[in-house]
Amino acid sequence: MADVAVRITKAIGYRGVGTIEFILDAQKNFYFLEMNTRLQVEHPVTEMVVGVDLVQMQIRVARGENVGAIHELPLRQSGHAIECRICAEDPEKNFLPSIGKITRYVEPKGEGVRVDSGVFEGWTIPMEYDPMLAKLIVHAPSRSRAIMKMLKALDDYQIEGIKTNIPFLMDILRNPEFVAGRTETGLIEKHFKEWSASHFVPEDPFNPFKNVGAQFIAPSSQQASKRSKQKKMTTISQPPCLAKW
Q1: What's the CA gap between 207 and 95, in Å, rounded?
Q2: Complete DSSP assignment for the chain
Q3: What is the pLDDT of residues 89-127, one digit of tens each?
Q4: What pLDDT, on a 0 to 100 scale, did the predictor assign at position 234?
Q5: pLDDT above 80 (res 229)
Q6: Looking at CB atoms within 10 Å, which of 53, 73, 166, 219 has the fewest?
């Protein structure tokens, strides 16, 4: 896929940073979808895995510098990265945008954890713009560790005063199909069409690989309320494996 992307850019004489998108079928055949002559929202995933500042690179290439002079070639990938878009919207109401004042805002921190954001505590979210508040990116040696690290980072992300999609993102990361790597375009429609907050009860909140056989259960409103109160009152201890990252 990467070789085809390079051939496409060479064929059109393109110079600069760009993004070529493909779609992959169940037999692992891939097809050209489109090219954007710019960085995508997901460019931090590439930066974390390859160790290159793509924003700086596109500026330096645009002013005539050679890629080889900017960074040692060939580029090498290391580990696995995942990005989540943190949005001010309510997943229980068909992702209705949530406007209002952010009364508390604390970003997660740690090795291999990155947050690209432009919001702050006390800021009022207007209704005129895209609901994305931030991009949360994690990097780890493997996909399984990246998933666990992302779950911990999402749990540490504190945003109050508005609704966000963080609980929804956490349930996706715990979904057995996602955990097993069987992710496709129909995942949300198949598994999250009737989603509601607090409907997934994991055995281990940060290790979904123990919960692959777990069932999705819809608790009563009383149970959901009890879990919500418990979460506010308690702090979940960090699994030993996370301390090594």
Answers
A1: 27
A2: -HHHHHHHHHHTT--S--EEEEEE-TTS-EEEEEEESS--TTHHHHHHHH---HHHHHHHHHTT--HHHHS-SS----SEEEEEEEESEEGGGTTEE--EE--EEE---STTEEEEE---TTPEEPSSS--EEEEEEEEESSHHHHHHHHHHHHHH-EEESS--SHHHHHHHHH-HHHHTT---TTHHHHHSTT--TT----SSTT-GGG-TT-------HHHHHHHHHHHHH--PPPPGGGGG-
A3: 999 999 999 999 999 999 999 999 999 998 999 999 988
A4: 31
A5: no
A6: 73
In one letter, which amino acid is 240? P
Residue 130, token pair as written in the block: 């895209």
User: What is the pLDDT at residue 235?
Assistant: 31
Catalytic center residues: 38
| The two structure tokens encoding residue 163 | 């609704």
Residue 48 pLDDT greater than 90, yes or no: yes
The pTM for the full model equals 0.79
**CATH 3.30.470.20 intervals, the chain:** 80-233
